[in-house]
Write a structure and sequence with these properties.
Shape: elongated
Largest sheet: none
Order of helices and strands: HHHHH
Number of helices: 5
Helix content: 55-70%
Distance between the termini: 22 Å
Radius of gyration: 17 Å
Number of domains: 1
Oligomer: single chain
Length: 150
């Protein structure tokens, strides 16, 4: 006898148990917090001038301007991907994919700071990498969002 996932009204995910709802709720909280952080960081890297960025972000001097803009674009689009597909339930598989991409970006940031000898600079990207990885795992495995009409 197989089990069937029951979609709870209004949740859009396949969770039908109290623990499933709690996991989904916790994932939503983390997704929203991450989206705010990455949207702000990405937007800043996309719109501020090189001089403005150098004044606030020390590692900018070691990275080409197009790469900084590219990182900003990845962070900003990742922030959108954490929320929009899941909230609209249109292609919700893009949400854990976005979280995986952000995990990759933050893992590379940790490696970059270790390479530069900025050991104190790895705390924030490490936390963001772990949080993004948790969202990816949670939305791929524990509480995936069901596509609209699915």
């Amino acid at each position: 006898m197989g089990t069937t996932s029951v979609r709870m009204p209004g949740t859009g995910d396949g969770t039908s148990t109290a623990s499933g709802k709690a996991i989904s709720g916790a994932l939503w909280v983390v997704q929203i917090l991450l989206a705010f952080v990455f949207a702000y960081a990405g937007w800043t890297k996309m719109v501020k001038t090189g001089a403005e960025l150098r004044a606030t972000i020390p590692w900018i001097t070691d990275v080409a301007s197009p790469m900084v803009r590219g990182i900003g674009i990845c962070e900003f689009l990742g922030a959108i991907g954490l929320i929009l597909p899941a909230a609209t339930r249109i292609r919700p598989r893009l949400t854990p994919i976005a979280a995986t991409g952000l995990t990759t970006v933050m893992t590379l940031a940790v490696a970059f700071h270790l390479y530069r000898g900025d050991d104190s600079m790895i705390v924030v990207p490490s936390i963001l990498a772990v949080a993004s990885a948790v969202v990816a795992w949670g939305r791929f495995r524990k509480a995936p969002i069901v596509e609209r009409g699915g």
